[in-house]
Amino acid sequence: MLQGFNSALRCIPVWLVYLIGTVPAFLYFWLGISNQLGPNPISDLEHLLGTLALQLLIAGLCITPLRQFANLNLIKFRRAIGLLAFFYVFLHLLVWLVLDVGQTSQIIKDLIKRPYITIGMLSFLGMVPLVITSNNISVRRLGSKWRVLHRITYFVCLLGGLHFVMLRKGFQLEPLIYLSLVVVLIILRVNWKRLRQGLSGNTA
User: Fold this and answer.
1) Rounded to an integer, what is the distance from CA 159 to the centroid of its chain?
2) Average of per-residue pLDDT across 73-98
């Protein structure tokens, strides 16, 4: 049954994932423009875009464990999910820069004085080389270095989860759940057998 499901997934064009994935962006901005986001529409818009970006990052981390433990093959869509995550992170940042802060001097002050903004910015900057090299030409040119470079994804996801936790001051369950999911998924992606062999070799 699962094999048939994987076969069905292979028939889904990647462009459809991009198309469906961009729909929430238009919806969120429409809700903001039409005053349907509540008393703080800019803050709500930032939250919606940032949360969806983190959800997409987590979805990207799920792909390898799903293939390993459930034999569910979604590798075909991993690049699209990653690029959509960057798209929403960029929109999240853009809303903060243009609609929320607006002044260059205040942006610099916030980056210095508010650690959660600094961490969020580091997460965004970490995504830039990943996006630039998310194409077949870069995969061929970089060879094995491409996989090494794209391990930055783990740090990007951790920083994104931490950004969310620090943004929501005090004990709040939602951001802690997201951060916990990121940690668990990264642990699941570790090749423990190879790690033990490496440690054994170093000890010897």
Assistant:
1) 10
2) 93
Q: Structure pTM? A: 0.88
Give yes or no for a contact between 39 and 159, defined as CB atoms under 8 angstroms apart.
no
| Residues 123, 67: Cα–Cα separation, whole Å | 26
Asked if residue 182 lies in contact with residue 61, where contact means CB atoms within 8 angstroms, the answer is yes
Report the domain count for the chain: 1
pLDDT band at 16; cut points 50, 70, 90: very high
* 13 domain residue, yes or no: yes
Domain that holds residue 60: 2-191
Rounded-to-integer distance, Cα 155 and Cα 64, Å: 17
Q: Judge whether 200 lies within some domain.
A: no
Residue 203 lies in a domain: no
Task: Specify whether the CB–CB gap between 12 and 73 falls below 8 A.
Answer: no
Mean pLDDT of 97-115: 81
